[in-house]
Design a protein that fits this description.
Blueprint (H helix, E strand, L loop, with lengths): L21 H32 L1 H11 L2 H28 L6 H25 L1
Helix pairs in contact: 1-2, 1-3, 3-4
């Protein structure tokens, strides 16, 4: 390959010069919450299997799930569930060809974030 003098400029965008947009951040967060929901589902499966195994093993699993750390994990899982659901609705809207312009897409991203926080708080208060 020929040695071409490209100067002192970067060949691709780097984190030091790239400003992430809200749409890219919400897209990444959708993927993260999807994977986090898998972990939460495995935790719930472990709790159910422990209940089916023995009272001693259930006491261990239940002690973990109902501890402060378990409560934190479940609350964050609820937030992830609401966010992932609202992001899915946003993608369904985009699949119809609507709201694809940048200002509306950013408003939908903010609605997903705000809506997930509000719905999580509502769910925790009601239940």
């Amino acid at each position: 390959m020929a040695d071409v003098n490209r100067g002192n400029r970067p060949l691709s965008p780097h984190l030091t010069i790239y400003r992430p947009q809200l749409t890219s951040i919400t897209s990444i967060f959708t993927r993260i919450t999807g994977n986090a929901l898998i972990v939460a589902a495995l935790l719930m499966v472990w709790w159910f299997l422990a209940a089916a195994t023995s009272p001693e093993y259930f006491a261990v699993a239940d002690g973990f799930v109902t501890s402060w750390f378990g409560d934190l994990v479940m609350t964050l899982s609820l937030l992830a569930l609401w966010y992932h659901t609202l992001a899915g609705v946003r993608h369904l809207i985009w699949d119809t060809g609507r709201a694809l312009d940048v200002p509306t897409a950013e408003k939908l991203g903010l609605a997903c974030i705000g809506g997930s926080v509000v719905l999580t708080a509502f769910t925790l208060i009601v239940i």
